[in-house]
Amino acid sequence: MSPRLDLHVHTTASDGWWTPARVVQEAVARGLRAIALTDHETTAGVAEAQAAAQGTPLEVIPGVEISVGGPEEEIDLLGYFIDPDHPDLQRLLEAMRAERVERIQAMTERLAQLGLPVPWEEVVELARGDVLGRPHLARAMVRHGYVTDEAEAFRRWLGRGRPAYVPRRPVDPREVIALVRAARGVAVLAHPGRTGIPGNFEVLWRAGLAGLEVFHPDHSPDETARLMVLAQTYNLVPTGGSDFHGPEPDGRILLGTLPVPDHTLDRLRDRRPR
Ligand SMILES: [Zn+2]
Questions:
Q1: How many Å lie between the centroid of ligand 1 and the Cα of residue 148?
Q2: Ligand 1 mean position to 65 CA, how many Å?
Q3: pTM of the complete model
Q4: Which domains does the chain have, with CATH numbers?
Q5: Which of 104, 131, 247, 265 has the fewest Cβ atoms surrounding its Cβ within 10 A?
């Protein structure tokens, strides 16, 4: 069975390289059945993507990726089928975006202290009014010739535990899961192979976690197999996606290339609060 779903996709609404319309165009060209837009702490790209998919066989599922991690472990949650207009969810996302700006500002200050000054206006300009993220800072560092590519920026300066790293202010993941459910969505734990199974996994599960992202480009075959067993053990829906941000450094486009089973969408839909 050829892969026809991609449930983890970023656009220029957060830190992706392509506009929502451009991503939809590519997904249609690849013959995908559905994609979920999961921009960081925003649903701003959903309407554009859905409009672009009008009249095509592609379904665009409204989604969001929410980082709840603290200093100990970084946990990302994915929300699917959410009502993008739900006021309480939007209030949370707005507060988190404000916190993101403060955090990237603090990291910019740290870089200056480290002798790698990047003008703040330039970072903001790179984000073009969309949700700020570390990738924008990394792009500015490449521009200034401090690093050769974004990966190096993360490896040496911006990654967890590196000199310019500032952790996010933690958010209670139970609150996030409750809000996703209030907005009639389902919550899924993102790429647990990359970040590790969090110590509070059972807490998330009891709070109403619906799925586990099993298929992800960063997961080795062993991790994928192990996560599949964990999903089955806890009766969670195994999900997956390419975590698409744009073409890879070598030009490959991973959109829609992960083996996400076709019935995943129906299984997730079944978990929506009524
Ligand atoms: Zn992501």
A1: 23
A2: 6
A3: 0.88
A4: 5-93+173-270 (3.20.20.140), 101-158 (1.10.150.650)
A5: 247
